[in-house]
Amino acid sequence: GSLLICFNSVGAGASQNHVHCHAWPSPPVPLLGGSGGRNGWDCYAVSRAQTAMDGSGHLAEVFLGGGSVRVSLLDYPCCCVRVSTQIGDAANAQKATRLAGDILAALVGLVQDLGLPHNVGLLNRPMNGSTSDNEAESPTDTDAYLFPRLRERSPGVTPGSRIGASEVMGVFHCHSDEQLRELAPDNTEGEDLPMAKALGDVSFEPKVEFWSNAKSILDQYT
Question: Taxonomically, which superkingdom (predicted)?
Fold first, then answer.
């Protein structure tokens, strides 16, 4: 199984003014019957996003720690940088996880220095695609998602609702049938979905500018 741990900063869905996180089993209940056979670590819209281009025709990604950590800017409506461990074997687990944590902390520091509201989502993923439930035998990799943002609400899509970590991961919470119809109208898909527009409305832009700033930090780990 998998567990999603999320953080909302002030201005990005936080409901209280102190540091705290939310955690729930993954897939979440709404996706249990319709996740298309996906596992808890790849059932979210953001977990299916591909690596974006960096503006110069190259993939916006960096491999660090001898390839044990991959950092990518994602092609996703809301600006998102993913930090993933690719441990390979149990002997490297602690070192790779510590490096990924240091990188994530540095990127969060960048977001805070820029004064941006933000969300963080952490998902564990079985190493090498293993399905073993025994973590002693099969340490888990981790995917960390960092979402730098400009605002808390979309001005044009359900403007009365705050967009938090669950929403930027791809799971919107609806409080009425009317809101559900607004977010997911019939015969609409892909980038035309109001949910995608809402995420774009709250995203830091341009995304490649944030990636450029992030790269200057990542260079310290090469």
Answer: Eukaryota
Give dist(CA 15, CA 185) in Å, integer: 28
Position of tokens 């015969």? 187
Q: What pLDDT is recorded for position 88?
A: 73
* 39 pLDDT above the threshold of 90: no
Mean pLDDT of 184-201: 80
* Residue showing tokens 């540095």: 106
**36 φ, ψ to 5°?**
65, 30
Sheet holding 118-126, edge to edge: 22-26, 2-8, 118-126, 140-148, 81-85, 69-73, 61-64
Number of Cβ within 10 Å of residue 77's Cβ equals 23
pLDDT tens track for 75-132: 999 999 999 998 877 678 889 999 999 999 999 999 999 999 999 999 998 765 555 5
> Cβ–Cβ contacts within 10 Å for residue 143, how many?
22
Domains of the chain by residue range:
2-221
Residue 79: name the closest of 38, 40, 105, 110 by CA.
Answer: 110
